[in-house]
Amino acid sequence: MKFTIIGAGAIGGVIGSYLVKGGEDVTFVDIDKDHVEKMNTDGLTIESKDNVFTVPVKALTLEELVKREVKLDVVFLCVKALHTKDAVNQFQHLLNEHSIVVSFQNGLCEQDIAAIIGEERTVGCFVNLFADYIRPGYIHYGGVGAVYIGELNKDITPRVEEIVNRLKVWGDAKATDNIEGYLWGKLAYGAILTATALTNEKIADILDSHQYRDMLIELAREVLEVAHLEGIKPEGFDNWEPGLLYPKETAKLDDINRQFDTLVSHLRNYTKTRTGIWRDLAVRKRKTEVPYHLEPIIAKGHKKHVRMGLTETTLRMIKDIEDGKRDLSIENLDLLNGVYLEKKNVYS
Q1: What are the two backbone dihedrals, phi and then psi, of residue 28, each rounded to the nearest 5 degrees?
Q2: 3-state DSSP of 50-62
Q3: SS3 138
Q4: Is 288 within 8 Å of 320 (Cβ atoms)?
Q5: In the chain, which residues fall in CATH 3.40.50.720?
Q6: Is residue 91 within 8 Å of residue 107, measured between CB atoms?
Q7: Lowest mean pLDDT: which of 141-150, 250-259, 292-301, 332-341?
Q8: What kind of fold does domain 2-177 have according to CATH?
Q9: Are 124 and 179 in contact (CB under 8 A)?
Q10: How are beta strands 58-61 and 25-30 bridged, if at all?
Q11: Tell me: the pLDDT tens digits for 102-155?
Q12: What's the CA gap between 145 and 104, in Å, rounded?
């Protein structure tokens, strides 16, 4: 297999660098010319809690890749969700009938990819890594997470098993016959993480606070209810078990609190303390991929008559922050808490 990493930022940089260390043939592609130049001249540096290493890499801009007219074998698409369609449209002519594109992204990007290149050339991926692009040629790897690879038709095929085997140089990647379940499990957890990005507080500190915990639980439940009505069984990962929260009728608060406490304990060991969404808002001052995560869930929820007040309010506040109409503040969680209490009072 020859790997092309399109989007050599946090996720693509980490995964690709380990593939290079393992002796794989990897080409990195990114739209940031400074990043590409730095990787070509000085290599790609990965800083983790206990280690710093640099690997020599081959890097191209997306424009250079398109002009080369070289057919692609295995593409790991690692761009932000909002750039998915544009990226795939630019390189799709470089794919042949045996090429595959694996979505190392957040959200439901597999659907957009398959709509352009076909389901037969699209492979699903769940990835939960804590990493940040710091500067050209330098990635901060803040905490190891999970990776699952799966076909959209739920088969575990030889190509899925081969990709998983190649990823062993990174860590404990696994094959799954329920990739949708992992994606929706993360969407529920991701809704909670998105809420933490409305503030300047650390993720662990927000999750540790019982002041907001009931609201965060209900926010995740809105997503999980949509998944249930879509016929999807969300899967757990990295100390997150959505089955403890939903269905609400069988949930036990003590079990949920233990789960949150375990999450807090693990998060405090990570050197990355805030989300990539927060970094986009507070540091890079750019649009986030949150609308591309939450809008499809909200749309599906409305069709199923699910009350999505917390999800809708979270999305609206993220957009307000992007547009400079709202500041990052703990008061945003107080507002969400008010929405939760109103919902609780009306429907209890």
Answers
A1: -95, 135
A2: CCEEEECCEEEEH
A3: strand
A4: no
A5: 2-177
A6: no
A7: 141-150
A8: Rossmann fold (3.40.50)
A9: yes
A10: parallel
A11: 999 999 999 999 999 999 999 999 999 889 899 999 999 987 789 999 999 999
A12: 13
d(CA 342, CA 348): 10
Delimiting residues of CATH 1.10.1040.10 domain(s) in the chain: 181-347
Question: What CATH homologous superfamily does 181-347 map to?
Answer: N-(1-d-carboxylethyl)-l-norvaline Dehydrogenase; domain 2 (1.10.1040.10)
Q: Which amino acid belongs to residue 194?
A: T
Give me the sheet containing 130-135, strands edge to edge.
52-55, 44-47, 138-143, 130-135
Section 157-162 average pLDDT = 98
Sequence-ordered strand ranges (E) for 69-145: 72-77, 95-103, 122-127, 130-135, 138-143
Burial class (CB in 10 A: 0-12, 13-18, 19+), 250: exposed
- Here the tokens at position 234 are 């969300």
Please state, in angstroms and rounded to a whole number, the distance separating the CA atoms of residues 45 and 71.
28
Give the closest residue to 18 by CA, choosing from 186, 179, 176, 147.
Answer: 147
CA distances from 44 to 65, 137, 167 (A): 19, 5, 18
DSSP-derived letter for residue 299 is H
3-class state of residue 46 by DSSP: strand
CB 258 within 8 A of CB 265: no
